[in-house]
Write a structure and sequence with these properties.
It is built from nine helices and five strands. By secondary structure, the chain is of the alpha+beta class. The longest helix has 31 residues. The structure holds ligand 0O2. The site of ligand 0O2 has 14 residues, from helix 2 and helix 5.
């Protein structure tokens, strides 16, 4: 097949990856803005390279004309969580989405691969709008923790280096490392509540400070300068107290003041 044709074929997959990544990024943002803990830490996506598609077709005896049907991970999304528990929360979130229909789920946390690979895979149908109308295609979502991702990334590059001939002692060491990752994830889960609390406070504080600064900046345009300077000084004082509830109270009061000025300026 000509390179140009490949590019055209893969274009809708690139669109799907871009759209899905943006949607999950907005979800992370929405959690954080509402002061809640986000079960998704990061999201990344990629379109499988032409050489990987050809390799997989060869390995699995797939005809070129059928690769879109049989290769499920042309559009790949990787969702990284902080804790193992979050993986199952994300799975539930995805199951309930209206814009994707689940085709298959593979729980490699329960059915760990021989290599030691752990991850939760979901294959879903997703529709993109193209020049020729809507196209329904498959996307693969791999959901795993930061630690599982660290292991899989290193193991994947070694697999690539050695192909099928990975030395036995290296395979064993990777296996041991995979077990150490399980222990690490369990340890992190045991302090999950504490970590979540501190992260929630951090994001809540960052959100409040951003809102307050925007309000003060807007007040400079419409309010008496001396009054705004007083508000600003008060903000610095409250901020230095490092008390989230006081910052919340200040932010609410400032909202009322800003609303008052806005109403006045509309008269
Ligand atoms: P890429 O894009 O380079 O990551 P398979 O038969 O394993 O080729 P299958 O049955 O279609 O693939 O799906 P499966 O087993 O669910 O796995 C597909 C993808 O999961 C792989 O994509 C890897 O990304 C990841 N994966 C599966 N097993 C392992 C493993 O042992 N180690 C690591 N590091 N990753 C794994 P590809 O095809 O490798 O392509």
């Amino acid at each position: 097949m000509e390179i140009q044709l490949w590019r055209e074929l893969l274009e809708p997959y690139a669109l799907a990856v871009d759209e899905v990544v943006v949607k999950f990024e907005h979800l992370i943002d929405a959690y954080r803005k509402s002061g809640s803990y986000s079960p998704i830490e990061q999201v990344k996506g990629r379109v499988k390279s032409i050489s990987s598609i050809l390799e997989k077709c060869q390995k699995k005896g797939i005809e070129f004309g059928e690769f879109e049907q049989y290769i499920e991970d042309i559009a790949g999304i990787r969702i990284i969580c902080q804790f193992t528990e979050d993986i199952y929360r994300v799975v539930e979130i995805i199951r309930n989405r209206a814009d994707m229909q689940i085709k298959e789920e593979k729980d490699y946390l329960v059915n760990v691969k021989d290599s030691g690979y752990r991850s939760y895979h979901m294959i879903a149908y997703y529709t993109v709008e193209t020049l020729r109308g809507p196209k329904r295609l498959q996307i693969e979502m791999q959901i795993r923790t930061l630690a599982m991702n660290f292991w899989a990334t290193i193991e994947h590059s070694l697999q690539y280096k050695y192909k099928k001939n990975m030395p036995e002692n290296l395979r064993q060491r990777l296996h041991n490392a995979a077990e150490a990752i399980v222990v690490l994830d369990k340890e992190m889960s045991s302090v999950r509540d504490e970590i979540m609390d501190s992260q929630n406070s951090f994001h809540r504080k960052a959100g409040l400070v951003a809102d307050i600064l925007t309000n003060i900046q807007n007040l400079y345009k419409i309010a008496n300068k001396k009054e705004v300077v007083k508000i600003q000084d008060e903000f610095f004082r409250v901020y230095q107290e490092a008390d989230l509830s006081k910052l919340e109270h200040f932010s609410k009061e400032l909202d009322v003041i800003a609303e008052g000025y806005r109403a006045q300026s509309l008269r």
